[in-house]
Amino acid sequence: MNIFQKVLNCNNKLFVIGDKDLPESMDHDAAVLACMNMGRGWRLPTVDELKAMKEQLFLKNIGGLASNRLYWSNEKKDSWNGWLFKMEDKWQYDSLIFHKFWVRPVKDLSKV
Fold first, then answer.
1. 72 in a domain, yes or no?
2. pLDDT at 71 over 90
3. Residues 11, 50: contact at Cβ < 8 Å?
4. Between vectors from CA 24 to CA 23 and to CA 27, what angle results, nearest 5°?
5. Could you tell me if residue 2 is inside a domain?
6. Percent above pLDDT 90 for the chain
7. Is the pLDDT of residue 92 over 80?
């Protein structure tokens, strides 16, 4: 994966996204670990960052984000459920953390 594809702004904080989704869906713990294994600073995005990806990339057909995929965020609803976001919807979803969903890693611009 390239270091980043686009610089995005979320709540006046700049971050970059990985150039593509990770190659397979995974549960929440595996997703966190996969991002960490990419190197210093890579992580799951927040729900707000996923919404920024939709507004700044997906709606402009930039970035290769899939409309029908649910993407993990780094936020949890509780100890058993995590928050997800689907680009074609305006809603966030929750699911048990052992279910498998997609990951688009992000990194704070200050850590690039």
1. yes
2. yes
3. no
4. 135
5. no
6. 77
7. yes
> What is the sign, positive or negative, of the torsion defined by CA atoms of 34, 39, 45, 50?
negative
Cα 3 versus chain centre, distance: 15
The pTM (predicted TM-score) of the whole model is: 0.90
Q: Where are the alpha helices (DSSP H) in the chain?
A: 28-36, 47-56
Q: What is the CATH number of the domain that holds 37?
A: 3.10.100.10
Nearest by Cα to 87 from 2, 3, 4, 17: 17
Give the structural domain span for 91.
7-111
The distance of Cα 36 from the centroid of its chain, to the nearest Å, equals: 13
Length of the chain, please?
112
Q: Decide if pLDDT at 109 tops 90.
A: no
How many separate domains does the chain show? 1
How far the first Cα of the chain sits from its last, in Å, is 14
Sequence-distant (≥ 6) Cβ neighbours of residue 48 within 8 angstroms: 10, 11
Strand partners for 26: 101
pLDDT band at 5 (very low <50, low <70, confident <90, very high): low
